[in-house]
Amino acid sequence: MIIVLKDGAQKKDVENLVDTLKTKGLDIHYSQGESTTIIGLIGDTTRVDPEAIAQLPAVGTVKRVSEPFKLANRKFHVGDTEVKVGASKIGGGTFGVIAGPCSVESERQLFEIAEKVKKSGACFLRGGAFKPRTSPYSFRGLKAEGIELLIAAKKQYKIPVVSELTSLDYIDLYQDVDIIQVGARNMQNFDMLLELGHSKKPVLLKRGLSSTIEELLMSAEYILAGGNANVILCERGIRTFETMTRNTLDISAVPVLKKITHLPVMIDPSHSGGRADIVPQLSKCAVVAGGDGLIVEVHNCPACALCDGAQSITPDTFDGLMTDIRKLCEMEGKRV
Ligand code: PEP
Ligand code: MN
User: Fold this and answer.
1) How confident is the model at residue 142 (pLDDT cuts 50, 70, 90)?
2) In this model, does residue 104 exceed pLDDT 90?
3) pLDDT over 70, % of the chain
4) For residues 232 and 216, is the Cβ–Cβ distance under 8 A?
5) Three-class SS of residue 313?
6) Closest ligand 1 atom to Cα of 308
7) CA-CA distance, 223 to 330, in Å (whole number)?
8) Is the CB of 102 under 6 A from ligand 1?
9) What residues have a C-beta under 5 A from ligand 2, the ion?
């Protein structure tokens, strides 16, 4: 249920309203816009009579929210959420680009890529250290050493970093990682989501391989309900019958999500297409679909990559892509 307050509602009337709601055992969520204030009610609202609440002096309108996701719901929140790390932003009119290798492989590999993607305009560096791989025989990342190298690149090139957490057992290693990525395979690892909700560190939540848009939002709800408002959603392709691409980029998910949630929405053109040759086109779709950013795999030698080389673009291709992204963002009235 949401309550839209009257313009110029008196402080004492608002306090009275909040007290009334709290005595019914409900949690209160405030969203303050320039001219509108919304109070979102979380909990069992079946005992609340909307008509009685509507009579209180501070109240403008009262509406039931039928969707099961509440805190992620646009109805609960005035304006778009913007996730900020230092000067780097994603959402709220800023199109943020995260770029880097699938996996951290060596200092030389990571530093060369970091320098180039930063120069081309990436606002975050990505690099996996704990890799969820389908085969136990594949390269599974440099683990703690990979995180250390990522932090060293962050310091050297002054660029915030993003890395995937595959188990809460490793969380202490992620203190200096700026955005924690929850991968597609962990989208419904509810214990992990709850734990990430207890910090303020931004979380990039990727859509599960076979998850619906609503399930993605319900997973975001776990993090938001713990008190962490810094959640970024990511469409990374879903599994379909199609075999020409690794997954099918569900481009419709972007405008659909933008309608129903205030959270920023990114696209991963690398894991969705699975092919470097179509990554630039898929990336450009993100801008015109109303997305808030991209997470894209870039490798200085895709043919030698230890993971996901076939879908990794070169730093030169990335540089050209950024030029196009800037033009498209200008057209859409967004900052890069
Ligand atoms: C990744 O970004 O490295 C990754 C493994 O992505 P996903 O979880 O979307 O498969
Ligand atoms: Mn990858």
Assistant:
1) very high
2) yes
3) 100
4) no
5) strand
6) 3
7) 33
8) yes
9) 102, 308
